[in-house]
Amino acid sequence: MSKIAEAVADLNMQPQVRSAPMLAFWFLLDGLSLANRANREGMHANALALTRQCYEAIGVIELGVCGHPEAESVLLRWDDDRLTPGKLRAWLDANVWPNSGTGLWDEPWSDFMSQFSQAIQPYAHYGRGLAQWQLRLHRLDYGSNPEDDIKAIIEMAPRAYDAQKATRITLFHGLLTYVLARIWATRYGEQDVAMREEINQLGAALGRSRYLDGHQTDWHQQFWAMLWERGGGTVLE
Predict the structure, then answer these.
(1) How far apart are CA 85 and CA 183, in angstroms?
(2) Which pTM was predicted?
(3) Is residue 232 part of a domain?
(4) 3-state DSSP assignment of residue 136
């Protein structure tokens, strides 16, 4: 995080937007801290809602760090409320991400970021999907035959701590950290070989997670609320 902090602290941009990436970075740090606390205390839905806002801040940070000659003008449009978060990401997709290498499984970085966005986008507002993160799944009964209905024992209570949900939110926080590191590495990585290697090691570790199977499926689905194992694989609600 200190590398990004240094990068956003001294930007050669107009005063109107010079501080915007730094403010976005501070927002992300505080948001992750609050989300981590909420997650540990069983407020998983609240943690995801906070994490969703952290994700929005990343685009502003990347505009400040990427070094693209048009980034300042794009940031000015954002500052003037003439650029939605979706349009901001579309600009990055067209102008920055093609030069950002590959994701966790050698897919284009644009594909990785698309899955990253789809994983957290459903939690922009309070709805059924987010509400399911308030439930604790205790166990499942598959029945004796494959065609039998699945029966679930679910706890509904304030701050119902679910260890699996907490783990998957922590994984998403790890992905946020990895994305920030890659943003820095795309611009400055050639100057710090040791740090670039650490970032590669982090990506390799994340790519081996049992809760990510991006090399096989659309991994954004792994962040649906209800997920369990059956026959060595995962089943999504």
Answers:
(1) 17
(2) 0.86
(3) yes
(4) strand
